[in-house]
Amino acid sequence: MISDRGRSFLSNLVKDINQLCQTSRLLTTAYHPQMNGLTERFNKTLADMLSMYVDVEQRNWDTILPFVTFAYNSAKQDTTEFSSFFLVHGRDIATPLDVVLPHDTENHAVNYVQQLITRAEEARQLAKLHILDSQAVDKRRYDERHRPVNYNVGDLVWVFTPVRKVGLSERLLRRYFGPYRITRRLSDVTYEVQSIEVTSRRQSKKDIVHVLRLKPYCDPQRQLDDAGAHRIPRRPVTRSQTRLQRDADSS
Questions:
Q1: Assessment of whether the complete model's pTM goes beyond 0.90
Q2: Which of 31, 54, 88, 125 has CA 20 to 30 A from 170's CA?
């Protein structure tokens, strides 16, 4: 079972139920929807479909939901090349139009069940092959532009944490907070971090983050000190002055 880190999923009750059912559980990292991509992609598709038919006040979405779900389950998926309904039941979904159109009624029940089982298993195997092919293509495209980043225990980093505040522009809000210290490396892409700024008597809480949310920490004050106050121009700088300064720096 894959879930986020909501309190309802981290409770002792859920933990005990998973142990009784012998269910293995994986927790996603915060602000990284790719870890649970299948669910997140379906949620986006479902929301997009609902947005096409919901009223202005958005109060009738629950009455539209059954029809949207029917359309989704009966639609052919690009990756699997089958509909979700066909992969589950081994046949196409029955619509009101199918009742009107002529259909074969001579098929024996025993033969029909056997054909249904065979057809469903063949479709699932083909869908699995199509998924593997699609994943291989996606991985190749990702690897072409991906550059691995590694951090060591003790390194200081910034952590990406999107925030929203009423009355403030989201574009101008800070996105990275820190510094955080790497306390443990859990995998090639997952790290345990802890803030070095303790604001209370208790030690700051540790968090599990994905490597894509991390950036090497650079002290802003040190960057200003290294630049030097004498390098800050007090008036507009001409091109000739810029060339002279560049020549002086190179020598």
A1: no
A2: 54
